[in-house]
Amino acid sequence: MKFTKKFKIFIISAISLISLIVLIISLFFLFNPNIIDSQLTLRVGAYENEPKIYTNDDGNVVGFFPELLEHIALKEGWEIEYIHGTWVQCLERLENNTIDIMLDVAYTDARTEKYDFTNVNALSNWGIVFKKVGSRIETLSDLDGKKVAVMAGSVHTDGAQGIKNITKNLGINCTFIELDNYYQVFEMLSGGGADVGIVNRLFGIFNIDKYNVEATSIIFNPMGLRFAFPKNASLNLYLISSLDKHLLDLIEDSNSKYYELLETYIYGFNEFRIPEWVIITIVSSIGLVALFFTTSAILKRKVKSRTAELQKAHNELEERVAERTIELQQANIRLKGLDQLKSMFLASMSHELRTPLNSIIGFTGWLLMEMEGDINEEQRKQLTMVEFSADHLLNLINDILDISKIEAGKVDLAITKFEIAEAVEDVVNSVLPLAKNKGLKLIYTVPKGIIVNSDKRRIKQVIMNLVSNAIKFSDQGNVKIEVKLLNNKDLEVIVKDNGIGIKKEDMEILFQPFQQIDMSSTKSHEGTGLGLYLSKKILELLHSEISVKSQFGKGSEFKLIIPIKFKEEV
Fold first, then answer.
1. Regarding beta strands 147-151 and 196-200, do their DSSP bridges make them parallel or antiparallel, or are they unpaired?
2. How many Cβ atoms sit within 10 Å of the Cβ of residue 457?
3. Residues 295-319: pLDDT tens digits?
4. How many Å apart are CA 452 and CA 418, to the nearest integer?
């Protein structure tokens, strides 16, 4: 009887042990499916959203997300099979479990009901409103009655904080045009089929130079970007844990593949590169110069051996002159190179500063509109100060960028026909509050019906600068704007004030960069000294002239002569 009882205990223990081993083996294979299939092939959705994911000219899927996944797949022993489609098609395939992974998906609570996500963000992004170059759209209220191009299915289109819900909540009526990808959005906007276009930040800054578009300060819907998977798919637990672990390790290591891809696709795509033909030209020139000097040296030695002392002295003098000439030429080349580097530096730094400033202005405006909740008066006061300071700094950077483009010869003029009266009225409406705040009377006389064929935005920029200066340096009296037609060929624009005037000895530095009449540490008028210099440069591009008459203590008069019909130089 005792033997039977022990035998039963033994049998029960053996069965329990076998069950435990089977459970452990099952869990091991569950969490390591690549044990079962040493070459796990993952079906990955691919669509076009440069620089995050796109197809290059060779037909390969490249970008930040594909190359990050391929780096991890190489370490895990996975094979990648890309399934191409539009954004909407890829999301439908993910929901139907016909692909295993979708790249570059913004994480939202609504999407977690359809898909599973990694727990670690690979990137952050937000939406930006772009407009056609020269358009006046600057705030959300300007979208009322406009045609808005968007990408179908994008979180920046249909999300809880997407552009559709934002405009609906603010009572702004728009006509939305849904397209398959962001390239089509920029193409439609650039071609005039839409008034504005909505794209994500990274696509916008990567492709802005390829289209006739520019960014507004309207930004919205900040999001974290992750890898997404079919809901409750069998591989999800394994894939998510593996990707999260690799992402955390890569982000922690500043020398990892993650930061290399950031530099390649996110930060370093706009860096300056010397064209190959320039390098070939430089190398060829150096070779020709070397050949020239070698030949010259041989000839000089032959001549020197056959001449007298007088010829020898002459040669020595000639060599000294040649050395001085070469030194002067080299010094001139270095100066030109430094000047070009200065312009490149200013343009690059202005671009790098303008992008975060637009973000500051946009997010400040977002907070002032109380989109994220109520704010008290002190917070509103501080945010308004931030917005004003950012606007002031952005204007300064724009001036520096304009100057650098002009000096580098890279300014594109937008020549169109417009009525000068309309342009002057736009300037007057912009500066009228400044004049009223100082108790000045703003008087303008502009004949109706005068059509000018020139760059409207640049001419307004020059007149705006002159009128703003007149208001800034006047404490009483009035500011006058007079427009006349001269000989049916030229336009005369006069801006006159009763301000402090300009001393005769200061007239020579008036149009110099970073020069102001009052350069003392206690000067009472703000400014950088770029306005008149930039205005003169713009007028030279438009084949126009600027002159000034002034009497110290009584006021100044600036005169512009602008051709009615702009003619490009042959």
1. parallel
2. 15
3. 777 877 776 777 777 887 878 888 8
4. 6
* DSSP for 361-421, written as a single string: HHHHHHHHTTTTS---HHHHHHHHHHHHHHHHHHHHHHHHHHHHHHHTT-PPP-EEEEEHH
Rounded to whole angstroms, how far apart are CA atoms 75 and 11? 45
Region 461-481: mean pLDDT is 91
Model pLDDT for residues 59-75, shown as the tens digit of each residue: 999 999 999 999 999 99
- CA–CA distance, 424 with 445 (Å, rounded to integer): 9
Residue 196's nearest CA partner among 248, 141, 149, 260 is 149
CA distance 493 to 126: 44
d(C-alpha 148, C-alpha 195), whole Å: 6
Distance CA 272, CA 98 (A): 42
Tell if the pTM clears 0.85, that is, is over it.
Answer: no
Q: Where does residue 97 fall: left (phi above 0), alpha (psi -120 to 50 degrees), or beta otherwise?
A: left
Which tokens is 364 given?
């400040």
415-563: which CATH architecture?
2-Layer Sandwich (3.30)
What CATH architecture applies to the domain 307-406? Orthogonal Bundle (1.10)
Q: Tell me if residue 528 falls in helix, strand or coil.
A: coil
Both tokens of 476, joined, read 């009483």
Using DSSP, state whether 451 is helix, strand or coil. Answer: strand
pLDDT at 570: 32
Q: In the chain, where are the structural domains located?
A: 2-28, 307-406, 415-563
pLDDT in tens, 438-448: 899 999 999 99
Decide: 524 and 518 in contact? Cβ < 8 Å: yes
| Beta-carbon count within 10 A of 262 CB | 15
H or E element that contains 305: helix 276-305
